[in-house]
Amino acid sequence: FHQRIKNSFKQIGIRKSCDIPNIPNLFKAEVAKAYLMASEFTTAVALEYVICIHKESKGIIYYMAAPGIEVDPSFLESFRKSIESEEIKLPGTVGDIAQVSVKEKYAVIRSGRTEYVAVILNKTPDRLVREALHSFGIKFGSRWGSDLKSLYSELNGDVSIFKRRTPTTGNVDDLAEECFHFSLAMPHRVETTLEKLKGLTKTVWTLAEQLARGKQYILLGDLLAACKKKTNESESAISVEIFGLIRKAVLVPFKEKEVANISLGL
């Protein structure tokens, strides 16, 4: 049993914890946590859009583009029309989820009472994507259900209601971050560290420094790709090491205002 746990740690890049004896429950918990973190990371860097479409009007009432994604109005309109014309297979019953291909991308769509919520990704969706979308759909319908029902009556189609932040529920952007961890796709700065790094951790940090030269920031998706090309380690193992550097504040996400300055070249 202990050897199976140790092997699981090695597969995802956790080695030192394996030297701690007689705590199998900790091993199991850490392995599960590491795999979850790795999945959240790879999902976040693959996400491009979260989109909400009103079932009755077939209009887009909310969307959020991932950091680094330039909004493509023609793609959004094409996706909306494919929903309106039912060119793509839509989920029927509330809570059902469907997966389709859309212009070399993948869309996962969940049916709500009055709306469809969808995520667009550039890689094949996994179970975590569907679970995150399901959670988002439930919370979106619960928190903004009354607004959805009255959107085209009392609210006169004012979709800005979904961007307004309240003390109790925040706004839909906050919910999207809660469920999909968009901040992981934000540009990150690479800080120096006094800790003596070893093995895969050192390799990841060295590649991060190299990617940041000349522009003072990196995208974690680029770092993941560079590490996969440079090493023979699994995506999960690399993702765990990247998370470790984030927890140690060696990789630090930029704030939204700072991202705007990066985009402007300031």
Key features of this structure:
five-stranded antiparallel beta sheet, two-stranded antiparallel ribbon, disordered N terminus, 266 residues, alpha+beta, Beta-Lactamase
Oligomeric form? single chain
> What are the secondary-structure elements, in order, as H or E?
HHEEHEEEHHHEHHHEH
Top CATH class of the largest domain: Alpha Beta
Roughly how many Å is the radius of gyration?
A: 21 Å
Spatial arrangement of strands, main beta sheet: 2-1-5-4-3
Briefly note the structural class of the backbone: alpha+beta
The name of the CATH architecture of the largest domain is 2-Layer Sandwich
CATH topology of the largest domain: Beta-Lactamase
Main sheet makeup: 5 strands, antiparallel
- Domain unit count: 3
Shape: elongated
Tell me roughly what share of residues is in helical segments: 40-55%
